[in-house]
Amino acid sequence: MYWPVSLSLICGSLLPLATGSLAQPDEQSETHYAIMDNDWYTAGFVPYLVALDGGVKVLGLASDTANSWQPQAALHAVATLEAGNLSCIPVYSGATWPLINTPLRFQAWETIHGKLAWEGAFAPENQTYEAQGNDPTSGDPNRIVKAAFKEGFPKGRPRNSTSAANFMVEMVHKYPGQVSIYSAGSLTNVALAVRMDPQFASLAKDLATGSILLADLQSDINLMIDPEASKIALTADFPNITIAGNVANQVFPSQEFADEVLSVPNPYSKLFHDYYDLSFPFWDETAAALMVEPSLAINQTSVFLDVDTSYGSPNYGNIHVYQKALAPDGIREVNFVFQVDEDRLKQRIKHSLQYPKTCADLDYLH
Ligand SMILES: *[C@@H]1O[C@H](CO)[C@@H](O)[C@H](O)[C@H]1NC(C)=O
Ligand SMILES: *[C@@H]1O[C@H](CO)[C@@H](O)[C@H](O)[C@H]1NC(C)=O
Ligand SMILES: *[C@@H]1O[C@H](CO)[C@@H](O)[C@H](O)[C@H]1NC(C)=O
Ligand SMILES: *[C@@H]1O[C@H](CO)[C@@H](O)[C@H](O)[C@H]1NC(C)=O
Ligand SMILES: *[C@@H]1O[C@H](CO)[C@@H](O)[C@H](O)[C@H]1NC(C)=O
After folding, report:
1. 151 pLDDT exceeds 90?
2. Which of 338, 340, 342 to mutate to test the pocket of ligand 5 (most atoms within 8 A of CB)?
3. Whole-prediction pTM value?
């Protein structure tokens, strides 16, 4: 989920749909799998619906800490899947804590360098705010705020057989070159997988992330929650990394769009209509749609990208972009998307919400 500052990483593969047909997997091409990692919330189901609608076989969801704590996000993943009979898709819990960062450490940085407009999970705890139905920030990371489950509190739980990072590693070995890793929250789980298995990144199809950097390229809470993990993930040897970053023509939902979506009523179109925050662009959704259909990008460039991991720096957790000639050692080229086809993006989002897949459609999980 993206807010004024947030990043989603699609660590996966952007499968070219050779036929160009919308929402139809190309029968000729290899099966395209994805693992989708995010800070899930009540209206956070659109990215996986877009992936499924586009013919991507979603192997599982992973949870991370970004706008709220991981345990709350994992339960939202389970709850939103239950809302649409998609519980055959497993949810694996990711790391609750960033590699190094903590709310106190982050807040200490802020006292020196200035408070961020959006602090995500590191915003000070506010029980009044939580009681009003908002997801928890700071304080005890394991507390669950039931009032925030406007989609319904889940009956099920995340799978406890393995961790998100381990699931990612296992799946890229099972389906080498075919699994996109999508990450629209912090990159902690991706970094853990990269460090756990030296083959992980190269065996994945690609990494897809949506970096939503408000008006500039500088701050994104998804990066800043875990700067060290961001650096590890974004410099790893994925065959391809695509960042839906700083999309110039950020596509916003409108009340009219939400009403139109609801003209085909179902649990997802209703939740979207009632709870999607219309004040933020389709950040995570853009990243997911690019994973399905890379040609949605109508203006993109290849840049060398690094993440500042110096705690003392005013740019701690920010991205630095270099031209090849000036790039420091140890960083790599990533694909940076500036502009997407707005009409096609909205079409994909609308179709995925109005005609969501259910488990009956997902034969690969049976
Ligand atoms: C989910 O499954 C239940 C029971 O099979 C059914 O009544 C309901 O209509 C289904 N909901 C959706 C959104 O498919
Ligand atoms: C806590 O949340 C309440 C309700 O949104 C708000 O009125 C109050 O200002 C917040 N407190 C702090 C310290 O931000
Ligand atoms: C793991 O999940 C299963 C099924 O939900 C449950 O029965 C079991 O108690 C869980 N184990 C642990 C250690 O939480
Ligand atoms: C990486 O993805 C971009 C966007 O889909 C594509 O243009 C590019 O050709 C891909 N590169 C490789 C090496 O697959
Ligand atoms: C692509 O985006 C960049 C950065 O916003 C901009 O400078 C450039 O003019 C755009 N190119 C086209 C063809 O629109």
Report:
1. yes
2. 338
3. 0.90
Domain boundaries, the chain: 2-360
Mean pLDDT for all residues in the chain: 89
Reported as a single tens digit per residue, the pLDDT across 304-331 is 989 999 999 998 988 888 888 899 998 9
Cα(330) to centroid of ligand 2, in Å?
43
**At the fourth CATH level, which superfamily is domain 2-360?**
Ribonucleoside hydrolase-like (3.90.245.10)
Q: How far apart are alpha carbons 289 and 309 in whole angstroms? A: 30
Please give the pLDDT value at position 247.
62
Terminal-to-terminal C-alpha distance of the chain: 29
Average pLDDT over residues 135-161: 98
- Ligand 1 atom closest to the Cα of residue 84 is 13
Residue among 305, 280, 287, 279 at smallest CA distance from 349: 287
């190309």: which residue's tokens? 26
Q: Which residue has the tokens 């179902």?
A: 266
Residue 71 near residue 95, CB atoms below 8 Å: no
